[in-house]
Design goal:
The protein is of the alpha/beta class and 107 residues long. It has four helices and six strands, in the order H-E-E-E-E-H-H-E-H-E. The protein is globular, with a radius of gyration of 14 Å.
């Protein structure tokens, strides 16, 4: 046997692409994705495009082992034909779908 780690966010994105899902919801500990997370100028994002997400990645806004895998999974889903990704906390799941809470990533 060989030890392996399966990234849950990327696996979810790949499965969602495989079944032709329109929407992928990634549950996490925070209500919204933020730029400058845990810093005085923290800026929550209600929506961003895939292009903006790529820019924010290149600027180093998302940390490995934290938000970066979720953003990368969102981009994989969008590039595979998905229409929307929502990243939010479990408490905001219903509100994210009905009231646009959380962070929405679109093509």
């Amino acid at each position: 046997g060989v030890n392996a780690v399966v990234d849950k966010d990327l696996t979810s994105a790949l499965m969602a692409v495989e079944i032709n899902a329109d929407l992928l919801i990634i549950s996490t500990q925070v209500e919204q994705v933020c730029l400058d997370f845990d810093k005085p100028g923290c800026r929550p994002l209600g929506q961003m495009t895939a292009a903006e997400a790529r820019l924010f990645i290149s600027q180093g806004h998302f940390e490995r082992g934290s938000m970066l895998p979720k953003i990368e999974a969102a981009l994989e889903f969008i590039s595979g034909g998905g229409k929307r990704v929502i990243i939010t906390s479990p408490d905001n799941l219903v509100g994210s779908v009905r009231e646009n809470k959380g962070t929405h990533i679109v093509p």
